[in-house]
Design brief:
single chain; alpha/beta; six-stranded parallel sheet; four-stranded antiparallel sheet
């Protein structure tokens, strides 16, 4: 009695469980049994060629029924009625269900952030701040125009906020090497760290800088002391401070300046600020010439430059611009390429 109970339990848990192994075994049994039934029924036209047999089995079992082949004997016809069609329909339904279930599981894993991202040269966002993160993603999508994929990595219990548009990975720690492999941290070209807690931002930024020192690292801090601490350990990291108080003070002195700041920072409307690099193979020039060229040829306004010693706002017209300098300008949209040769003609 005990042996029978164990056998029944094994059959219920293994034999009737729809998994890939059982489906393969049942398919082989179905094909082998079908061939034997036709062979003993004398259906030589269906069994002498495996191609013909496989073709007939698929067409009949799926109930497509083209009619170009059919059993000729009584036994063969009863084999089709009692076994070929019922067994084929059952296997087709099981296989389709398995495929559909696997597709749903794969899609659901992406929604829940359980799937590894197979990307390179991507923008990686570490942290979730609700609508602020959503706004950041929308601005990045507008700026990038699909050039670099965007991956959101979060410790929060959320699902992918933009399925089909961005990648999403959920982790328990931003400093866990095994979990961070899912987002290809070491292959990201830009890493943006923005969390509700500054200490989490600091630890994530330090780990990111150590894992991928070549990436463009940006971190948003509310505490200026932690911002300075990261700058000391990672001089190449850009620390973005909270500017709410500064904007309030500026608006109090210069009414309407807060609106101007929003327009300058917005990427989906109005005049916004961008940057470009004066080619390293271009001849040395001055601000006056570049300012005039950018305005006349592209309707862009030069506002600052960086020659390697920090950003210089509103440079004098006589100021020299060496090759390789970074130029900051205001324009309606980002200008993909400047025809510097035209300026030098």
């Amino acid at each position: 009695m005990t042996l029978w109970l164990h056998l029944k339990k094994w059959i219920n848990s293994s034999l009737f469980k729809i998994n890939n192994r059982n489906l393969l075994v049942l398919s082989l049994v179905y094909v082998g049994t079908s061939w034997l039934l036709f062979f003993f029924a004398g259906e030589t036209a269906l069994t002498e060629s495996f191609t013909t047999f496989a073709y007939y089995l698929m067409v009949t079992a799926s109930t497509v029924g083209y009619g170009d082949f059919s059993p000729q004997t009584e036994v063969g016809k009863w084999a089709v009625v009692l076994f070929i069609i019922p067994g084929g329909l059952s296997l087709f339904a099981a296989m389709l269900g398995r495929v559909a279930g696997s597709a749903i599981e794969y899609w659901r894993a992406g929604i829940l952030g359980k799937r590894r991202m197979r990307v390179e040269n991507h923008i990686l966002l570490l942290g979730w701040n609700g609508q602020r993160t959503m706004h950041l993603i929308r601005m990045l999508q507008h700026e990038e125009h699909g050039k670099r994929p965007i991956i959101l990595c979060s410790r929060s219990e959320i699902e992918n906020p933009l399925p089909g548009e961005i990648g999403f990975v959920r982790v328990t720690s931003y400093t866990d090497g095994q979990e961070m492999e899912k987002v290809n941290l070491d292959k990201a070209s830009c890493i943006i760290v923005d969390n509700l807690e500054d200490d989490v931002t600091l630890s994530a930024a330090l780990y990111s800088a150590n894992t991928n020192p070549d990436a463009h690292l940006l971190a948003y801090f509310k505490d200026e002391a932690l911002s300075h601490l990261l700058s000391q350990h990672c001089p190449n990291a850009e620390c973005i401070p909270a500017v709410g108080a500064e904007m309030l003070a500026k608006a109090a002195v210069d009414p309407g300046s807060s609106v101007l700041h929003q327009e300058l920072l917005a990427s989906t409307r109005g005049m916004t600020q961008y940057s470009t690099v004066y080619p390293s193979d271009a001849t040395k020039t001055d601000v006056n010439r570049v300012f005039t060229f950018m305005k006349a040829a592209h309707d862009a306004t030069l506002i600052a430059m960086d020659t390697g010693n920090g950003i210089e706002l509103n440079p004098q017209l006589s100021r020299d611009i060496p090759s390789g300098a970074q130029l900051f300008y205001i324009a309606d949209e980002r200008i993909d390429s400047f025809n510097w040769k035209e300026m030098n003609q």
